[in-house]
Write a structure and sequence with these properties.
Radius of gyration: 19 Å
Number of helices: 11
Number of domains: 2
Pfam families: DegV
CATH architecture of the largest domain: 2-Layer Sandwich
Protein name: DegV family protein
CATH topology of the largest domain: Hypothetical Protein Tm841, Chain: A,domain 3
Structural class: alpha/beta
GO molecular function: lipid binding
Order of helices and strands: EHEEEHEHEHEHHEHHEEHEHEHE
Keywords: Lipid-binding
């Protein structure tokens, strides 16, 4: 049985890796005024952060049309028996539901939509693992069973410099924003029940990043091998420094670097920094 793997652009998997693993990508869009751009296709992360600085108003975002999924799934049905479609949390976007609807419409192929309950490269971990398994000839049942296993050990924490982006996008309540602003905190955030919620309130960026490392340390003290990704919003140099420091300290963890692209960057704002990890 031949299985295709699809994900959306918010996994921020580099194109070279998508091509190598044959991961099919559906883009979300970012909207500046009357102009709409498909992220990762028509707008890179670097272009996005440059444009935000030039524009007076924050952009908005939109999920893919169901028709885009129908078109892709129909095309894949010519070569594959099944599709696993991995998407960002269903409570922060309707993208997953779009895959569900399209899967019901396309009868020629069995579609398995998967709610990662998270986003960015934490979501990408699933798509990459699934694609590697598919290339090894594993079927959708085995891949989905591995996803369920991964979900048990996958963790992700991130901090933002400016809470107003999350509040404007409806991802955080006004009360939480006011409290955060008054205290000048850098809240650590994470996903609970598919929603972004505060984990802890921390006073400085440095302490917030240290707290993320403490949380990683708690999980990896079992001595098993993990992979971890540092995710940044236009802070590549800082991310590289952090990675170099952590690689020396934690040899049983394979570190990589990713980024918050245009759609997620719209909601988090420049300067956000996070980390996700999962047991290998």
């Amino acid at each position: 049985m031949k299985t295709a793997v699809v994900t959306d652009s918010t996994a921020y998997i580099p194109k070279e890796l998508r091509d190598k693993l044959n991961i099919h990508m559906i883009p979300l869009s970012v909207i500046f005024g009357n102009e709409t751009y498909q992220e990762e296709i028509e707008m890179s992360a670097a272009d996005f952060y440059d444009m935000v600085k030039r524009e007076d108003k924050l952009p908005t975002t939109s999920q893919p049309a169901v028709g885009q999924f129908v078109e892709l799934f129909s095309e894949l049905s010519k070569e594959y028996d099944a599709v696993i479609s991995v998407h960002l949390s269903s409570k922060i976007s309707g993208t997953y539901q779009g895959a569900v609807s399209a899967g019901e419409m396309v009868k020629e192929i069995k579609v398995h939509p998967f709610d990662s309950e998270i986003s960015c490269m934490a979501q990408g971990f699933y798509a990459i693992e699934g694609a590697e398994m598919a290339q090894d000839g594993k079927g959708s049942d085995e891949i989905l069973a591995r996803f369920a296993e991964m979900k048990q050990s996958l963790r992700a924490y991130f901090m933002v410099d400016d809470l107003s982006h999350l509040q404007r996008g409806g991802r955080l309540s006004s009360a939480q924003v006011i409290i955060g602003s008054l205290l000048q905190v850098k809240p650590l955030l994470h996903f609970v029940d598919k929603m972004i919620v505060p984990f802890e309130k921390i006073r400085t960026r440095k302490r917030a990043m240290k707290r993320i490392v403490d949380l990683l340390e708690e999980d990896i003290k079992n001595g098993l091998s993990y992979k971890a990704v540092i995710i940044h919003a236009n802070r590549e140099a800082e991310a590289n420094e952090w990675k170099a420091e952590l690689e020396t300290k934690y040899p049983n963890v394979e570190f990589s670097i990713s980024y918050f692209g245009a759609v997620i960057g719209t909601h988090l704002g420049e300067g956000a920094m996070g980390m996700a990890w999962v047991k290998k």
